[in-house]
TrEMBL record:
<dbReference type="Pfam" id="PF21337">
    <property type="entry name" value="Peptidase_M17_N_1"/>
</dbReference>
<feature type="domain" description="Cytosol aminopeptidase">
    <location>
        <begin position="310"/>
        <end position="317"/>
    </location>
</feature>
<comment type="similarity">
    <text>Belongs to the peptidase M17 family.</text>
</comment>
<protein>
    <submittedName>
        <fullName>Leucyl aminopeptidase family protein</fullName>
    </submittedName>
</protein>
<dbReference type="Pfam" id="PF00883">
    <property type="entry name" value="Peptidase_M17"/>
</dbReference>
<dbReference type="GO" id="GO:0004177">
    <property type="term" value="F:aminopeptidase activity"/>
</dbReference>
<dbReference type="InterPro" id="IPR011356">
    <property type="entry name" value="Leucine_aapep/pepB"/>
</dbReference>
<keyword id="KW-0645">Protease</keyword>
<dbReference type="InterPro" id="IPR000819">
    <property type="entry name" value="Peptidase_M17_C"/>
</dbReference>
<dbReference type="InterPro" id="IPR043472">
    <property type="entry name" value="Macro_dom-like"/>
</dbReference>
<keyword id="KW-0031">Aminopeptidase</keyword>
<keyword id="KW-0464">Manganese</keyword>
<keyword id="KW-0378">Hydrolase</keyword>
<dbReference type="InterPro" id="IPR048816">
    <property type="entry name" value="Peptidase_M17_N_1"/>
</dbReference>
Length: 463
């Protein structure tokens, strides 16, 4: 599928765009010439986030422009503050004029590029009217790579299941592998049973489009990083059928796979010195005469048995087989990403990416990175005393513990049972969806945690 490639404008002619904090706005206005001051006052410009000021020249063009940057308190309540004003700027090419530090400029420049994203596969979309010249002092190629990786994630999530089933997800992975000379191997249909991926097969066997395990590798030196992404291309809930309202967004249930493919693209395009492996169990959870059933007991790749108490808790089943495979290779770090539980949304809402990890060095690296790149995450506990909740007695594990308590935690504990050899494992229970338009994040599919992970990898893996 064609990839949106957000890029900076390449020109020496651009309109200066001053970034004006609210607490210094009065001084800035006083520095303007009299006509510009009067125009700004008449426009009501006060440096608030989302405000834009355009001062015309004598020919009716744009002499200069400014956007509000709010107060420090305002900036803590939002992200991508410059992008909030872009809808109010006239078409044109702009160049930042600001004394912001390089790290902040990079974030605001990234927000500008992310604002240019359009999902136009099915209907023509108006292109972004405004372009930005890369600010001096930032790593512009890196920012463009990150924006392209995020665009890939958004495109994959936004595509409906009619065009993003398991074969289409495989095609997207193959296209990415070809672009960066990565190797890829795919196990499909009944072959999953032959090579011992029984739970991936069980979840996906009822669908017309066969289940599969996608295995991509890139790099031959450096620490080993394995990314595992949930690829449930549509989730009806299976025989425990979801109500219509809950099924409406289930095209995004492959958001974990979209996130790891977007992150993988960033890693490969940047040429990070590591060995990357991407594992995606791609399935549809459908209803048919051969669908797996409540009270079935499945035997996983790892040999652990799982009692099925709700067929709508299928994501952890396909991830379990993929994690068992990842663990056999004992990489330096395994990261799983999945749109796994509604409990995570209840706990932290749609904007935060909750994650689980026991390694405190990883926690420090990720939290610092997340703050620096405006990609918020929130640590949740692998609370071992809850382990009995996922042990039904009749089998080793329960895929849907009764009671409704700690749903995201028990799902994470379930997954951790399949990573026993690899010392460092991190799990993200993401939402993968922006419920309403926000600066740099139009309504629709969105990456979560990936930019934070990318920024944390040099510290986490000692690159």
């Amino acid at each position: 599928m064609p990839l949106t490639q957000p890029t900076f404008a390449q020109t020496d002619t651009a309109t200066p765009l001053t970034i004006v904090p609210e607490d210094t706005c009065a001084d800035w206005l006083a520095s303007l010439d009299a006509p510009a001051q009067k125009w700004a006052e008449a426009s009501g410009f006060a440096g608030k986030i989302g405000q834009a000021l355009v001062v015309p020249d004598m020919d009716g063009g744009v002499q200069m422009a400014a956007v509000g940057y709010g107060t420090e308190a305002d900036r803590k309540r939002a992200r991508f503050h410059v992008a909030a004003a872009l809808p109010r700027l006239p078409a044109g090419i702009y160049a930042f004029h600001s004394d912001l530090d390089a790290e902040t400029l990079e974030t605001e420049a990234l927000g500008w590029l992310l604002s240019s994203y359009r999902f136009d596969r099915y209907a023509e979309q108006s292109p972004s009217r405004v372009q930005l010249v890369a600010p001096e002092g930032i790593d512009a190629p890196r920012i463009e790579i990150i924006a392209a990786g995020e665009a890939l994630t958004r495109d994959l999530i936004n595509t409906p299941a009619s065009d993003m089933g398991p074969p289409d997800l495989e095609a997207a992975a193959r296209e990415l592998a070809e672009e960066f000379s990565a190797s890829i191997d795919v196990t499909t249909g009944d072959d999953l049973l032959t090579v011992n991926f029984p739970m991936i097969h069980a979840v996906g066997r009822a669908a017309d489009r066969a289940p599969r395990l996608i295995d991509m590798r890139w790099g031959d030196a450096g620490p080993k990083l394995t990314l595992v992404g949930k690829g449930v291309c549509f989730d009806t809930g299976g025989l425990n059928l979801k109500p219509g309202a809950s099924m409406g967004l289930m095209k995004k249930d492959m958001g974990g796979s979209a996130a790891v493919l977007g992150l993988a693209r960033m890693i490969m395009a940047l040429g990070l010195p590591l060995q990357l492996r991407v594992l995606i169990p791609a399935v549809e959870n459908s209803v048919s005469s051969n669908a797996f059933r409540p009270q079935d007991i499945l035997t996983s790749r790892k040999g652990l048995t799982v009692e099925i108490n709700n067929t709508d808790a299928e994501g952890r089943l396909v991830l379990a087989d993929a994690l068992a495979l990842a663990d056999e290779d004992t990489p330096d770090l395994i990261v799983s990403m999945a749109t796994l539980t509604g409990a995570a949304r209840v706990a932290v809402g749609p904007d935060l990416a909750p994650y689980y990890v026991d390694d405190l060095q990883l926690v420090t690296a990720l939290e610092q990175a997340a703050a620096s790149v405006a990609d918020p995450v929130w640590r949740m506990p692998f609370h071992t005393p809850y382990e009995p909740m996922i042990e039904p007695g009749i089998a080793d594990l329960d895929n849907a513990p009764k009671g409704g308590f700690a749903g995201s935690i028990t799902a994470a504990l379930f997954l951790r049972r399949f990573v026993t050899k690899t010392p460092r494992y991190m799990h993200f229970d993401i939402y993968g969806w922006q419920p309403s338009d926000a600066p740099a994040r139009p309504k629709g599919g969105v990456g979560q945690g990936t930019r934070a992970l990318l920024a944390a990898l040099p510290t986490a893996l000692k690159l």
